[in-house]
Amino acid sequence: MIREHFRVLLVDLSTGRSTISDVEGRNTVAGGSGLAAMLFEKYCIIDKPWNEPEQPLILTIGPLTGYFPLMSKTVCAFKSPYHDQYAESHGGGRSALSLRFADYDALVITGRAKTPSALVVGSRRIEIKDVHYLWGTDLQVAGKVLRQMFPGGGHRTILRIGPAGERLSPMACITADTYRHFGRLGGGAVMGSKNLKAIMIHGDSTFMLPESKDYAKVFDKVYKDMTDTDMMSKYHNLGTPGNVRVMNDLKALPIRNLQATTDPETEGITGERFAEVALLRNAACAGCPVGCIHIGFVRERFREENRYVYRQISYDHELIFAVGSMLGVMNCFEVLKLIDVAEKMGLDVMSPGVALAWATEALAKGIITEKETLVPLAFGNSASYQTAIQHLAYGTNEFYQILSQGTARAAERYGGGDFACVLGQEMAGYATGETFFVSQALGLRHSHLDSGGYSYDQKPKGKTVEDAVKFLINDEKGRVFLTSMVSCLFARGVYTDEVLGNCLRSVGYGTLADSMDSVAGEIQKLRWKMRVRTGYLPESVSIPKRFTEITTWKGAIDAAFMANLKNEYAKKILEIAG
C-alpha cells in the first residue's frame, strides 16, 4: 500500500536512541534526492563543520523502489569533508531494496558512537554493536567478519568503510555489498567521524505489490524495454569500459594527467581487452535485470611453488581511466591490482588515481621530491602506485596527509596548480570539452552524471553559451527527478517522462505523476539552496589551466567560451537557489 508520507528512522549514535516518524512531502520532493535535501535542511547544523557529531548522514530511497527494475539506487547525503558543503553520493547493490523491505523511506544517523560500532537496522530491530576489533581492518577483512556476524540474503545490505574513512580522508568512500559504492565527496569520512565502521540494513519485513492489471501491464512494458533494447546489450556486454576505446578515438580520454587525450597503448585497457582476458562474470544490483557490473580477477602467488590465490574485482570506465590511462598503466591486470588496493583501503578509486597522476607530474618537474612521495612515482609504474595508494589511505607522511585532502589542497601547498586535474574534485574520465568541464566543475555532485555535458560536447560546433547553459539546466532538472525516483541513470533512455508518469500512476501516486515537472523544479531548487546555504560560491570556482591546453576531435579548447559558460552557469545556479 502506498504512503503519501515518508517513514523516516532517526538514530542517535551518541545516546543509542531511535525514533520513527512520518514526514510529509511526498508530492513536493518525491523521494531520493529530493527527500535527502529536505531531511538535510531539517537536521543539518548549517554553521558547524562537517564532522560535528550532530551533523546527519542520510540514506533515502524513492517512491518506485521495489516496484520497477533499475529503481535500485540509494541517495546518501551529508556535509562533505571535501568542501564542508551539502553533498550527495549515490550507490546501489542491495541497499535500496533492503531499506524498502525494512519499511523505511529514509535513515537519518546523527551523533557519534562511544566506540567503533556497527549500526544494525531492521523493521523490528535497531541495535548499535561494538566492533572495536574491526577498526583498522581493510574492507576485505571487515567484509568477511561482518557477513558472518550478520548473515542474510538478497534483502540484507552491509555498508562499510576502510582505513581511509577511519582517518577521515575526503577521498574515503562507503562500500556497499563489495562491488558498489557511495563514492564521491567523502561519505566514508563522515561514517568515520561517527565511529561507524558499518551499517547493516536487514529487509526483514514484507513489501506487497499492486494487484491491478494496470501495474502488471506497465511493469511488463518497462521490463521488456530494459531487456530487449540496445541498453541491455550495451551495459551487459562490455559495459561502461566500452567507453575507453570510444573516448580514445574521440581524443577525449584523459591520459597521463591529461597531458594527452589519445594514445594507441590504451588498447591494453579497453573494454574489449578486459572482456577478452580478464572478465570473470557479470553481477547486478538488486532488482536489476541488466547486470552492468563487470568483475575481473587478479591472482597472487602465496607459496614459492606455483600456488595462487584469486580475487574478484569489479571494474568500469571511471576506474580504468583513474588508475589506468591517467597513470599511464596500460595493462588491464595491473589496473585491476590498483583498483584492488584502493578498494581494500576504502578509497574512492577516482580521487587517488587523479591525485597520484598530479603527484607524478609534480615529481617529474621537481615541484616535489621522493622525500615526499616515498616511492619513485612514474607513469606506468604500477608497483609504485600500489604502494602510494596505501600511503594515501594511511597518511604515512605530511605529503600524503595533505594529498588525501584533495589534489587542489596539495597544489596550494606545493605548487603545480596549473596541471591539477580538479573540477570541483578530482575529474571524471571524460575530456570531451568545454561544456563537460564546466558542468563537472560547478555541478552539485561534481560527477559526470550530474548532466549530459559530455554528450553535448560531441554535438556539432556553433552552439552559443546561452544554448549550453539552457541545456545544462534542463538536463539536470530531468536527471534530478530520476534520482528522486532513485533510478539508475543508465535507464534514463527507458524512463521517459511518459513512462515515469505511467509507473507512478500504476502504483497509486497519481498526484505526483501529474506534477512531475513542477516537482522536479522544486527539487532542483532545494538541492542548490542547500549547497549555497552551506557556503558554495559558484562564481569563485576556477578551472585549472591544463583543461585549456588539450585538443579533442573538435580541435583546441575554446578557453574564452569555457570562461563565459562558467560565469553564466554560475549565475543561473544562484538564480535557481534563490
Automatic annotation (TrEMBL):
Cofactor requirements of the protein: tungstopterin; [4Fe-4S] cluster
Keyword 4Fe-4S tagged: yes
Top EC class, one word: oxidoreductase
Keywords: 4Fe-4S, Iron, Iron-sulfur, Metal-binding, Oxidoreductase
Gene3D superfamilies named in the record: Aldehyde Ferredoxin Oxidoreductase Protein, subunit A, domain 2 (1.10.569.10), Aldehyde Ferredoxin Oxidoreductase Protein, subunit A, domain 3 (1.10.599.10), Aldehyde ferredoxin oxidoreductase, N-terminal domain (3.60.9.10)
Gene Ontology MF term list: 4 iron, 4 sulfur cluster binding; aldehyde ferredoxin oxidoreductase activity; electron transfer activity; metal ion binding
Domain spans labelled Aldehyde ferredoxin oxidoreductase N-terminal: 5-205
Coiled-coil zones: none
SMART domains associated with the record: AFOR_N
EC number: 1.2.7.5
InterPro entries: Ald_Fedxn_OxRdtase_dom2 (IPR013984), Ald_Fedxn_OxRdtase_dom3 (IPR013985), Ald_Fedxn_OxRdtase_N (IPR013983), Ald_Fedxn_OxRdtase_N_sf (IPR036503), OxRdtase_Ald_Fedxn_C (IPR001203), Tungsten_al_ferr_oxy-like_C (IPR036021), W-dependent_AOR (IPR051919)
Pfam family, one: AFOR_C
Family named by the database record: Belongs to the AOR/FOR family.
Protein name: Aldehyde ferredoxin oxidoreductase
Lineage of the organism: Bacteria, Pseudomonadati, Nitrospirota, Nitrospiria, Nitrospirales
